[in-house]
Amino acid sequence: MVGCASSPVQNGAPLKGSNGLSLAPTLQEIAPTRRALFDLPPPNRPVAVAVYGFTDQTGQFRQSSVGQSFSSAVTQGSTSVLVRALEDAGKSRWFTIVEREQVGRLMQERRVIHNMREMYLGEKGYDPQVLPSLLFAGVLLEGGIIGYDSNTVTGGIGAGYLGISARTQYRQDVVTVYLRAVSVRTGEVLTTITSSQTISSYALGGGAFRYVGFKKLLEAEAGMTLNEPRLMVLQQAVEHAVYGLVMEGVELKLWEFQDTSAGWPYVWHYQKERDSSYLPANLAHAKGLSHEK
To answer: What is the pLDDT of residues 222-270, one digit of tens each?
Structure first.
């Protein structure tokens, strides 16, 4: 019977994986931070940026209840996450990204092309039509994941009556990323951004333990755990940092929107969010009341 089993099919496509248990691949859901990058108005001109590395600077390992784990707490592919966020800014209209993380491979491939053309075509120099000069960046983006704090908030609640109980637990972790823009011409740090995002985990469970008859004991348990994917949370933190980098650069006159009137509402909302996070809660409330007056 197992050999004759097949996966469900709808419109000619299987609904599940080859083992009949896992779901079919799906496109990643667009987070609000990524949608905010999409909606950015275009700049006056694209900014050429280079990213040599955006790495995990925490050095932390994943927590384990059974012993020490040598798996990293966060992904080691954060550079790819940053490059993707830069591409999403204004739908690839804000930044021109040059390859620098694997620039050695790029140069090696260019040397292979030159050597083959020299060997088979007799070329003695570089043909600019075949191998033009590489694009250089005016801004260098550096930084990384600087913090991963576990169990910043923990708690739970439970209750039981007549052998029937229910319980819930929750936990929050915080990942923090740091991003800075450096001028290649002068080496000056133009602006810096720090962004944090929480990772939430929830556990629900219940059980029953009671006698239903003489020497007849009923015992049952059920539970479910929900964990936010660490990669998606890191993506949101990086996307928010890139969004803040754009806004800070506009405020500092490093770059500007093509249409100032269209970009001003974005800058105003960002300034409001930033200033409210800098001030204590009671002071921010008092400041808001004074502005209303």
So the answer is: 888 888 888 888 899 999 999 999 999 999 999 999 999 999 999 999 9
- Whole-prediction pTM: 0.77
> Which 8-state DSSP code applies to residue 230?
H
**Are the C-beta atoms of residues 179 and 248 closer than 8 Å to each other?**
no
For every residue of the chain, which 3-state class applies, written as one string? CCCCCCCCEECCEECECCCCCCECCCCCCCCHHHHHHHCCCCECCCEEEEECCCEECCCCECCCCCCCCCCECCCCCHHHHHHHHHHHCCCCCCEEEEECCCHHHHHHHHHHHHHHHHHHHCCCCCCCCCCCCCCCCCEEEEEEEEEEEEEEEEEEEEEEECCEEEEEEEEEEEEEEEEEEEECCCCCEEEEEEEEEEEEEEEEEEEEEEEEECCEEEEEEEEEEEECCHHHHHHHHHHHHHHHHHHHHHHCCCCCECCHHHHHHHHHHHHHHHHHHHCCHHHHHHHHHHHHC
